[in-house]
Amino acid sequence: MKNLMQFLIAGTFAATALVASPVSAADTGKSEAQSEQPKKITDRRHPDYVRCRSESVIGSLSKKRRICMTNSEWTEYVRTGSRNAKEFVADNQPGFMLQPQ
Predict the structure, then answer these.
(1) Is the residue at 55 inside a domain?
(2) Phi and psi for 69 in degrees, rounded to 5?
C-alpha cells in the first residue's frame, strides 16, 4: 500500500511538471509577441482608425451604450441604415406610385 501511494505521488508530480513546463514556455513567447505589437493608428481619416460614440438606449432616459467601430465599418453601417430607410419608405408608398419590377 505504501509503494502504491509513493507511485501515485511521484506520478502526480511528474504530470504536474510536464503540464507546467509548456505553460511557462508559452508565457515567455507571449511577452515577446506583446512587445511586437503594431503601432497605434493616429490618423483619424485612416480606414482602420477606431471611432467610438455613445447612443441612447431605447426605453431609457439616461442609459447610453458605447459603440466602437473602424471608419470603414462606420461607413458600411451608415450605408446599410440609409438603404434600409429608403426601402422602408418605398415599401410604404401608396399603390399608384409602385415601380414596375
Answers:
(1) yes
(2) -150, 165
